[in-house]
Amino acid sequence: MNEKPGYYAIIPSDVRYDTRLPSKAPLLYGEITALANKSGSCWASDDYFCRLYGVSRSTVQAWMQALERYGYIIRNVTFKPDSKEIDKRYITLSSAVYPKTGQGYTEKSDKGIPKNRTDNNTSINKNIRASSTLESDFEKLWKLYPKKIGKKPALAAYKRVMSRKKNPATNRQIQDGIVAYRQLINSKGTEKQFIKDGSTFFNQEAWNDYLEVVKEERNEQEARKPKFDPKKTAIAMYIDYNSPDRVLEEIQAQGIPINPEDAKRYIAEYDEGRQQA
């Protein structure tokens, strides 16, 4: 895979403007869509993306993990027969963000619209379109949910929470909740029989619960982590890469919260200290 793909890339607005992602992760997402357009799945290795963007494997992994964490891609692995050794890895796009099929553009009519035409079915048509949109959005979320049981009552519950006047739910909330639930059951190794049916999840509006659970777990993990030290981090990267320019590139690529000017100063002070030693 030495050639750059000539297929078009798609980066939906949800991905482009997601501030949780490292700065170049949306670009990687676009590359994955280009490769997926070619074969249906993206089989490119980390090394391929490293060469393509001129970054380290850890940077590519950070981008991948962020895209998967927030529900934009799904990474799958296949194992060698009778072995736990990974044979191949492939990436698919989350249908909640990037549906496989979509509505095309309609052809322009050459007949125009009569000036005095009245349409008594306007409100009915609007309701039909609204219902169709809800069902289409629900399908994307349903494909993302891990236990697809009780689709009909789940759809009814989804329409109810999306259409209510007070505090309606949003697709983004539900998607984030499903992703959070998937992360939770994966981290705990929950057996399938104990995973909530889809109908239960939607009827209980459980996405709110799991967003809170994951948020609390992340807060606990953050509290246990040593406090981030930008100076130590910049110097450690400098020792690894032995190049100030490479350090600055990695800081930007990985979205590391270090001011580039501060990083230069830390490195200069470190070099000065070594010379004096």
Can you put this structure into words, describing what you see?
With 277 residues, this protein is mainly alpha-helical. The protein folds into 3 domains: 13-93, Orthogonal Bundle (Arc Repressor Mutant, subunit A); 126-224, no CATH class; 230-276, no CATH class. Helix content is 57%, strand content 5%. It contains 12 helices and 2 strands; from the N terminus they run ααααββαααααααα. It has helices at residues 13-16, 25-39, 46-53, 57-69, 122-144, 151-163, 171-188, 198-203, 207-224, 230-241, 244-254, 260-276, and strands at residues 73-79, 86-93. Strands 1-2 form a two-stranded antiparallel sheet. β1 and β2 form a beta hairpin. The protein is elongated, with a radius of gyration of 24 Å. The model is unreliable at 99-129 (pLDDT under 50). This is Helix-turn-helix domain-containing protein. Pfam families: HTH_36 (PF13730).
Beta-strand percentage range: 5-15%
Give the count of structural domains.
Answer: 3
Counting DSSP H or I runs of 4 or more residues, the number of helices is 12
Number of separate strands: 2
Set out the fold topology.
Elements: H1 13-16, H2 25-39, H3 46-53, H4 57-69, E1 73-79, E2 86-93, H5 122-144, H6 151-163, H7 171-188, H8 198-203, H9 207-224, H10 230-241, H11 244-254, H12 260-276
Antiparallel strand pairs: 1-2
Helix pairs in contact: 2-4, 3-4, 5-6, 5-7, 7-9, 10-12, 11-12
Protein name: Helix-turn-helix domain-containing protein
Pfam families: HTH_36 (PF13730)
Biased composition (Basic and acidic residues): 107-118
